[in-house]
Each structure stands twice: as structure tokens, then as C-alpha cells.
Amino acid sequence: MEQLSGVQYCVNSSPPWKEAVLLGFQHYILTLGTAVLIPTITVSQMGGDNVEKAKAIQTLLFLSGINTLTQTTFGTRLPSVVGGSHSFLVPVMSIIRAKRYNAFQESHERFAQTMRGVQGALILASVFQTILGFLGLWRNIVRYLSPLSIVPLVTFTGFGLYYLAFPMLGKCVAIGLAELVLIVLISQYLPLYITSKKTIFERYAVLLSVTVSWICAGIFTWSGAYGKSTEALTACRTNTSGLTHEAPWIYIPYPFQWGTPTFDAGEVFVMMVASFVSSIESTGSFLATARYGSATPVPPCILNRGICWLGFANFLGSMCGTVTGFSASIESCGALAFTKVGSRLVIQISAAFMIFFSVFGKFGAVFASIPLPITAALYCIFFGSVSSVGLSHLQFCNLNSFRTKIILGFSFSVGLSVSQFFREHWAAANHSPLHTHSSWFNNMVSVLLMSHASVAVMIAMVLDCTLGRINDENGKDWWDKFTDYGKDIRTDEFYRLPWKLNKLFPAF
User: Fold this and answer.
1) Does residue 278 form part of some domain?
2) Euclidean distance between the first and the last CA atom of the chain, given in angstroms as a whole number
């Protein structure tokens, strides 16, 4: 119950090198989807062209690799990829639409000025997030988590990005649905009929299915089946990214490559809230990753350490200009469930792929031509895997208790409905449903309440801590031995810092 059985390689164990490299490449493919999607959404609205978009993608991918290495080595030490976060998109879009940038008529100048504004807000938000972890404030918050409140946190961490799954797949149903069917057939059905000593189909389902779907999409594109005049079929083509010709052969991101950052107080506060939301969702991802890595539950001090290094990751990203901040990847966490390999080494190899293909841009641009509906099909599978591991924490709770039912039902209902209300209003009107005189305050509230995981876990934690309980209804008695680092001897095995750092930072 404390460690998930059936995992073939846990956090500290590693598959053979050939398998580890292939598995690491699979995680790179998953990270590439987010690295391409976020700059594709934002850069064109900022005034950038394909050259700026290629550099933004390479910068985001390069920093994702660096930050994944630091997180797996010095942070939580879990097999968790650190990638671009969608939690920062609302503050970024509000900066893009700021009236002060309308004065710049030339598109390249407008892009540079907007990017500097995003960088300035991210720099101070990253300092806030680092302080949140460095001073132990996050540890004091997550100490109040119980298995009951973890259920909505982890469940909605996966479900919270549902709008990136089938809606994006629906932009090209032919390719997206084919990928969805392929990965289910390869990973779930083929092993039932084709026996093998090596678990090839379950472990490499992503590589096998994406390769087939990508080749089919390429054949249809080159044959002219997806005509350029047909807007509905644009997402099906493999030549729409514009990165193959524009990406430089060799490119190494560097600090302040877009110029000196600029600062606006309102935008900084909104970005700080986004970093807080990112911390909540990353905590849910860390808890799910620990489960799929067959590790013991993550102690609060380790979650605190992970958030501190996420703050450092956002600082590095803001210095170089990554368009968005960073969080623990949900899709890579879900991939651990399919492969049954929760090895830290595999994730570190994937980080090496990120760094390599971001520096050598032409090679990375080839893989960036994978149509986004194919990536969306993978999201349909992996987001659900993260949500299911959240529901698995119900085994530690008393489901016959009316207190448990009320907390779960209320947090699920409010987490879904409130966030959906704010999302729909923002999508329709491009601003918060609040109508105070302070636009930055309206955006702050919207960023917090648009996150399903944030709303659900806040409701669950408040109710769980304030409603009295007679017996172990929320699983807290079982959970208490993992709240302090030294209470369980297995904790040191999974989360111990390398070298002699654990003695220098025993509770950090």
C-alpha cells in the first residue's frame, strides 16, 4: 500500500542503457509537445515571426533540460520532468494585451518589448517562489495535507489540463484519433496476444505509435491530401510549424537575449499568483510521480525542496526569456504508469536529449514537425493516468464516512464548476469576470480560481482541518509517519541528496 507494486524499475534502479536511452527519448517527445505549443500560442501574438518562435522553443527546451537535471539531482530527486507551465499563460496573455505595447508599430520591436515585460514579471515571481521554498513556508502548508485532501489535488492536477487533450485532438480527428487508438492497441492489447520476454509493446508504445502516425501524416502532407487552402486540415500537416527552415543550426540561449527586462507592479503580482498555482500543481505531480516511481509518500520537507528548485528554474527561465514559467510535467508523470519504469536515470537521459536538440536546432525542428493532435492523443492517456493515481489514495480513507463523502463531493463539485466559470468567461471576453477598478487584482483572482487543482485542494484542506473527526477517516494516522523525514527509514533511500549535501541540508 505504501509503495506501488508492479513497477519494474523504481526511482533508484535503472534499466539497461539501451532501454534507458529509448525511454528517455520517449519523455523528450512528450516534453517537446509543450515546448512547441506554448511559444506557438504566444509568440505570434507578441509580434514575433518563425525565427523568434524557433528561438523561444529552443530556449524553453534548453532550460527544461537544465532544470530537469537540477530537480532530479538536488530537488525532490524524483523522476519528474520540469517543463513549460500552462499556469502562467493568463499573466503572459495579459502582458501581451497591455496597452503600453501598442505604441510599438514594428513587429520585431513589439515582440522584444513584450518579452522584456514577461521576463521582468517572471524574475520577481521566481524570487517569491524560491523564498517560499527556501524559508520552509511551503513545508508548513503541505504539512496539513492528508490522503483525503491529496485525492482532489492529484486528481485535478491531471484533469485540470483536459482542454489540451481531446479538444486539440479534434482539430485533426483523422490523425489524432488514429494515434489514440494505436497507443491503446499497442500498449494494452498486443501484449495479450504476442508474448515476449521483453515488455516491448508496453514500454515503447509512445515511440511505436507516434512513429506510425507521424509517417502517415507526412505521407498525406506530401501527397497533397491536406491542401493548404483547407483551414480545417492545417493541424494535420507536418509542415506548418515553419521551424525547419528558420531554426538555426546551433543556438545556445543566454541571459537577456531579448534585452533588459522591464517591470510593472500589477503584472508582477499576477505572475506571483501564477507561480503559487504552479507550486500547487507541481506538488500534485510530485506526489503522483512518487507513487508511480514506487517510492514512499513524499515528506513535506522534500516537497518544499522541490518548490525551491522550481523557483530557481523559473529564475533561470526568466533571465533567458522562456515565454512562460516551469512546473513538474504531468504528461511525463503519466508516461511512468504506461512504461512501469520510474527510474531517475531515464528522466536525466531525457534531459540530455532536450539540451542536445535545443542546441542543434535543425535536428530538433524535425521532431517539432509532429502534428499537435498526435501529442494531444497522448495527453488523453497520460493526464488520465495522473488523475487515477490521485483516486488511488482513497484506499487510505474511510469511504463509509459521511464526513469523507461531503469533503470529496464538495471539493470536486466546486473545483470543477468555479474554475470552469472563470475559464469560460476569460475565453469569451479575454478578461476576468470580476469588475473591480483594479485590473491586476481581477487577474490575480482569476489565475488562482481558474486552476481546478488549486480550488479543489483549498476547499478539501479547509474542510478536512476544520471538521472534527472521531476516527481515522482521512487516513492522517497512516500518513503521519511520512510527515517527518526520519520517521520512516525508506525515506532516506529515495530522497537523500547526493554527495554530502544531505548532512548540510538535513531538513531542506
Assistant:
1) yes
2) 27
Q: Which alpha helices (DSSP H) does 232-371 contain, by range?
A: 243-246, 265-292, 300-320, 330-339, 344-359, 361-367
Q: Where are the alpha helices (DSSP H) in 166-299?
A: 166-169, 173-184, 190-193, 200-203, 205-223, 243-246, 265-292
Range of the domain at 181: 17-388
Tell me how many domains the chain contains: 1
* Chain centre to alpha carbon of residue 160: 11
Q: Where are the beta strands (DSSP E) in 68-218?
A: 82-84
- Cα separation, 150 vs 506, whole angstroms: 25
- Domain presence at residue 489: no
How is residue 257 annotated by DSSP? Answer: T
User: Does residue 132 surpass a pLDDT of 80?
Assistant: yes
pLDDT of residue 489: 83
With a CB cutoff of 8 Å and minimum separation 6, the contacts of 177 are 169, 377
Q: Which residues of 393-405 are buried (b: 16+ CB within 10 A; e: fewer)?
A: bbebbbeebebbe
Question: pLDDT at position 21, please?
Answer: 95
Give which of 364, 96, 351, 106 is closest to 246, Cα–Cα.
364
Q: Which three cell numbers stand for residue 324?
A: 512562460
Is 328 in a helix, a strand, or coil?
strand
The full length of the chain comes to: 508
Q: Whole-angstrom Cα distance, residue 489 to residue 180?
A: 42
The yes-or-no verdict on residue 28 having pLDDT over 70 is: yes
Residue with cell 521483453: 198
Measure the CA dihedral 301/302/308/309, to 10°.
Answer: 160
In a domain, residue 476? The reply is no
Give which of 133, 31, 70 is closest to 313, Cα–Cα: 70
* Block residue for cell numbers 482539430: 171
pTM comes to 0.94
- The angle at the Cα of 437, spanning 433 to 442, to the nearest 5 degrees, equals 40
Rounded CA gap, 85 and 70, in Å? Answer: 17
Q: Is residue 460 part of a domain?
A: no
- Residue (of 81, 22, 18, 362) closest to 208 by Cα position: 22
The DSSP element (H or E) to which 327 belongs, if any, is strand 326-328
Q: Which amino acid is at 197?
A: K
Q: How many CA atoms lie within 13 A of 189 on its CB side?
A: 6
